[in-house]
Write a structure and sequence with these properties.
The complex is a heterodimer of chains A (419) and B (334).
Chain A lengths: L1 H12 L4 H5 L7 E6 L4 H18 L2 E6 L2 H6 L1 H6 L5 E5 L2 H8 L7 H7 L5 H6 L10 E5 L2 E6 H7 L7 H13 L3 E4 L7 H23 L8 H13 L12 H9 L3 E7 H10 L7 E4 L12 E3 L2 E6 L6 H11 L2 H8 L6 E2 L11 H12 L2 E3 L2 H4 L2 H16 L3 H19 L2
Parallel strand pairs in A: 1-2, 1-3, 6-7, 9-12
Antiparallel strand pairs in A: 3-10, 4-10, 4-11, 5-7, 5-8
Helix pairs in contact in A: 3-15, 3-16, 7-15, 11-12, 12-20, 13-14, 19-20
Chain B lengths: L1 H14 L3 H6 L6 H32 L2 E2 L23 E2 L3 H9 L3 H31 L5 H13 L2 H12 L5 H5 L18 H27 L2 H9 L4 H12 L1 H16 L3 H7 L8 H9 L6 H32 L1
Antiparallel strand pairs in B: 1-2
Helix pairs in contact in B: 3-15, 4-15, 5-6, 5-9, 5-12, 6-9, 7-9, 7-13, 9-12, 10-11, 12-15, 14-15
Chain lengths: 419, 334
Amino acid sequence: MAAGALLSACGDGSEADSPKKSSGPVAGSTVAFGSNYSDPATKEAFAALAASASASTKAKVKINTVDHNSFQQNITSYLQGTPDDLFTWFAGYRMQYFAAQRLAEPIDDVWEKIGGNFGPVAKELSTGLDGHQYLVPLYNYPWVVFYRKSLFKKNGYTVPTTWDAYLALCRRMKADGLVPIAFGDKDGWPALGTFDILNMRLNGHDYHAKLMKHEIPWTDRGVHTVFQHWAEMMPYTQSGANGRTWQDAAKTLESKKAGMMFQGTNQVAAQFVSDKVDLDDLDFFPFPAVDPKWGQRYMDAPTDGFMLSKKAKNPTAAKAVLEYIGTGEAEAEYLKSDQWDVGLAKGLKVPSYNAIQKKSVAEIAKCEAVGQFMDRDADPAMATAMISLIQKFIGDPRARTIASLQKSAESQAKAIYTG
Amino acid sequence: MSTLTRTRGSSVPPGIPTSPRRRRRPRHLSTRDRVVAALLLAVPLVLSLAFVWFPALSTVLLSFTRWNGVGGLHTEPCDPALPPVLNNGCVNGVQNYHQAATNYPEFWPAVQHNLIWLAVFVVIATPLGMLFAVVIDRGISGSRMYQSILFLPVMLSLALIGIIWEFVYSQNYGVINTVIGRAGDSNAIDWLGDPDLNLWAVLLEATWRQAGYVMVLYLAGLKAVDPTLREAARVDGANPWQTFWQVVFPAMKPINIVVMVITVIESLRAFDLVYITNKGINGLELLSVLVTSNIVGETQRVGFGSALGVVLLLISLVPICLFLRQTFRREETQ
């Protein structure tokens, strides 16, 4: 009932397009929705979103949930076979790649209607290489440094904003018998986030974006600087990261054996919730500034959203569903039971936001540009290559390994991007 | 006894003078027989063409292309000047092989790890399984129980074995690090993350299972060995060691060949354990994993992955050819 009230409010705002919505084959028809929201909590939230979309558009929404790893692995054949009308996906190069392969349908007409609900960054994240829109975003989450308030208070630590202060804090924590930076990279991808943030802090977002598209060679001096700074951090980073899952690393933060952890809220806060650890004691700060030229202007804030298949059987109704999802009300519906992600729509009112989510919104809003995480910003084959190179670096973070890693990265990038 | 009667039975027909008539008879097949024979031949032939030869040949052909799995293939050569999205489905020549051998850091470690895997199975897992089988076959007390315990891992899927051993190896919470008092964070042994250690850690998991598997095969073999042979050996004054190596072991030749074949196959198709452990990266590279990670995934490098698949095929052909040569030679001499 509450959803209905919200929906009518939403309808008032965009009265012009309601005739198209109500006429035609939308009402009563079925929209198939391929979903990778396979974890119990997200599955539930997604079902609530689908139900309210269904109530709003009068179209039936049928969700086909697939385990998220399988979903991602099979995406190419899925989209070429008989895909659902709509499917869950990620913003960034990952979206642009599938759009460029003509596996997704442009949804510029949807964006004409929902465009007002989003800022320019969200629109840019939904735009393919050809300038058309292909994605309706739902939420994002920042990659930041997490810590426990009580531990900081007890030991008298203060939040560092500069590289020197950060390293000084690390030294103090080490002296206090703590692991300064909890770190787990058994799955390979978590470390990519550290590369991203150091690159954005040292070389800026433009440089990072160009590097991800291989418009700057991996042998560039800037990449060397990133690894040099990382090597400075390594003595304070939890050892043996290549054999530890990020979940186990998060547990050392939970148990106050570690002082800090750099990771996404989608992981750390979600882990605190599922481990039933005091979420109110968790706090974060943006990664400290390294080069004053760039300050703390950028961060990774991966965005998830929805796309329309090229082979959609019911595109009219599917677009109506997307129009609904591109509203603050729809995002609020989704975020009711989600305690880590934050919605992207302007003026979004979510009564259930906790302190972490509120701070996430504020910190993302402060950014001039947000990265999407290396495996979303770069060709996934390149991200895979970097996973193994960065693991080699973590296993042996010495100066002489850096140059050979860069050389290997560049020769693989050449094969992957041009070949 | 059975072998004796069989050889006698088979040696009888040539001795019968009326054999020409008997030999001619099978040529007069009724239409129905011919249809049945044709069907019996055709169905497996079609199945093997469709599911073995077609994919194998396609893989070889695909290995000379650059293709991401979207859209069709064409016969034009790749243009290095074009961006990859436009440069799709083109003929890439031997570029994929060249890249694998020169520019793909995982390739040579994977080949090496596959060979180590094979060596460990041949040198450790198989003899260990044989030892278990011999000891249990001798009927030590509680042999049934040992048999069950050793056989247990064989019944578990490799994926499950990988998960079970995570609890043993985990840095912060694992059994080993806890027992040796190193479960802290600074001095814990990183069993699965250290590229110098993790292959051996995983090989221990694999051996744990493989030895049980080999044990079962050898137990069956040992049971099939005619007990009179052992008795004869004992009468001749052979000690247990001599009896086993000079009488029982040669008598188990068919089982030995089966075990050898299984050992080679199991080591070449090794995949599950490393994939469960860390997706086959950072010291656990195997050719099968590289094929999978290139072909199955979001952005597929089908051509490149196929080239790796062909390399794996060529490596597998070596033991297969040796085995077939061995088998056929034996049949000819018989």
